[in-house]
Amino acid sequence: MRWRKSERDDLLPGVSEKQFFRAAREYSAAAYPNPGRTGCPDHSRLAALARRKVRLEAELEVIEHVATCSPCFVEFREIHKAWKQKRTGVMVAAVAALVCLAAIFGINLVNHHRADRPGVAKAPPQQPHVELQKMAIDLRPYEPVRGNDPRRHEPGPIALPPANLELTMQLPVGSEKGRYIIQLLDQNGILRMETHGDAVFLNYITTLVASADLRSVTRGRFTLLVRREPSPGALSCPVEVR
Fold first, then answer.
1. Quick one: pLDDT band at residue 168, thresholds 50, 70, 90?
2. Whole-prediction pTM value?
3. What are residue 227's DSSP bridge partners?
4. Which residue has the higher pLDDT, 154 or 146?
């Protein structure tokens, strides 16, 4: 049953149903406390008004009271809301949604308390798997030579991507097999990356294999140092991360 206009609309001039509910929500929900429920209409009158079983002009006294009594307005609003939900079938969906949310919240709460109990080990977060990008580098042209040979061509910088790399490096003739340390220094001599690898003889060439994670290294020019442990001498060559 919808609110119907009456011949006595001058009692509530310019006030629509929508405006009435909005004004009631804004001014009556908490602005007029009445803990003793003094002068409040009984539940049946509020229910009849909320469920639109009475004419608006017939309950002006109740409407005026509801608009100025927070407890009555809250009760009126809940009755009206339940009535509308029952009419449209929304109540079932709303209850189902609340049950699902409560179940999810309960599971998360139980897991949280279980994880925080002493003696219960927390599972470490899984790290995403990153494929190693394989690269082969020939370091033999960077072998230091004695004296100044004008015919010797100075090799340029080695280009490396800022990625997680698996480097296969061919070392200069005479390099020994064993454990090597690889370091990357910036132009200020600051260490930006350090890793280790083992060198073996492969097809008569000393070959060093090592992983090098350059994902956090900024692009630019660097110096690559390759040194056999515990030897103090190191092979040096220019590198450009790009």
1. very high
2. 0.45
3. 181
4. 154
CB-based burial label for 158 (10 Å; 0-12, 13-18, 19+): buried
φ and ψ at 227, to 5 degrees?
-135, 135
For residues 120-135, average pLDDT: 67
Asked if 181 and 196 count as a contact pair (C-beta separation under 8 A), the reply is yes
Q: What class has domain 133-141+158-241?
A: mainly beta
pLDDT tens per residue across span 223-235 = 999 999 888 889 9
Query: Region 67-96: what's the mean pLDDT?
Result: 72
CA separation for the pair 106, 112 (Å, rounded): 10
Q: What is the number of other CB atoms lying within 10 angstroms of the CB of residue 28?
A: 21
Residue of 116, 193, 126 whose CA lies nearest to 162: 193
In one-letter notation, the amino acid at residue 33 is P
237 and 223 Cβ atoms separated by less than 8 Å: yes
Q: In the 8-state DSSP scheme, what is residue 180?
A: E
Question: Where along the chain do its domains lie?
Answer: 12-88, 133-141+158-241
Higher pLDDT, 10 or 237: 237
The beta strands (E) that lie in the chain are given as 133-138, 158-160, 164-170, 178-185, 191-202, 205-213, 220-228, 235-241
Tell me: cis bond preceding 35? Omega within 30 of 0 counts.
no
Q: Alpha-carbon Rg of the chain, whole angstroms? A: 41
Distance CA 176, CA 199 (A): 8
Beta strand extents in 19-147 (DSSP E only): 133-138
* Tokens standing for residue 169: 């490096």
